[in-house]
Protein: Phosphodiesterase
Organism: Bacillus badius
Amino acid sequence: FAKTNGKNQLVVYNPAVHDNEKERQIAMSFREALQNNEFYLCYQPKYNVKEKRISCAEVLVRWNSPEFGFVPPSIFIPIAEKNGFITELTEWTLNEACRQMKEWRNKSHPLEKIAVNISAPMFLSHALHQTVTGILRKYRLDGRHLELEITETSIMENLDTAVKVIKRLQADHISIALDDFGTGVSSLTYLKKLPIHSLKIDKSFIDDVHTSPEGKALVEMIIHLAKLFHLHVVAEGVETEEQLQTLISLKCDEIQGYHISKPLQAHELDEFFKAFTAV
Ligand code: C2E
Ligand code: CA
Ligand code: CA
Ligand code: CA
């Protein structure tokens, strides 16, 4: 569509060009943003149904930019993946999350594990194992306190490499969760080959688990499948009590979503735990 600019000239607004330009600007400001501490981490609790407690939290990166305002990760992560900045950002995230975890461990915090998202290109790189173990060593943190969330698509890009990477990480007690399960590939045969710890059912399956019999049957099937492979099952994006109760009845192991808690900054998580154990 057309609009007038300040000089009263008619300009044609092209969303594609606009987006590309914005994307370029965002990509150019990443490094400085990292140096200026514009990125910070949030932690979203995962509730363990059987143990009735929260022992794990997912790490989610946030960017508050003085130039662009609050930029959601759904916007900047794909740009960072495209321009290669994702490696630096993930290293920073791993480092900051492990530093925080060490601080929590020193205070006997109930949180036992943090889960960090790893993008496909980074997961398949040979440097990942070294990067991760280097950071764990730096903070004298056991691999048992760290989980890496990876997507089906990143595994399927190169299954043999993925199996090797996972085995090396597992030798150091680092666990692997398969993220956004069900949204990627159609073949499930790869599950046989992967020594992973847990499977996260994507939010899109959880949305109608309590309202549609088909939706419920599908989640039930995924949970059965997971149990067949001795995997721990996590439901993401749980927003209501009805969804929670349905998932408990289906024997889902862990629940993550706004109904338990939104992603919280470290100090907010401390407050959350105080209130939660008081229940
Ligand atoms: P994801 O890994 O599937 O993360 C879950 C997303 O769902 C998060 O959005 C979280 O805030 C949101 N969420 C959690 N519970 C609920 C709920 O009950 N309802 C709704 N509507 N949403 C819920 P977020 O933080 O905006 O992150 C979006 C995506 O960005 C993530 O999806 C992940 O793929 C990516 N991402 C975030 N942080 C990182 C990171 O540090 N590294 C990498 N590689 N990717 C990241
Ligand atoms: Ca995730
Ligand atoms: Ca997810
Ligand atoms: Ca998801």
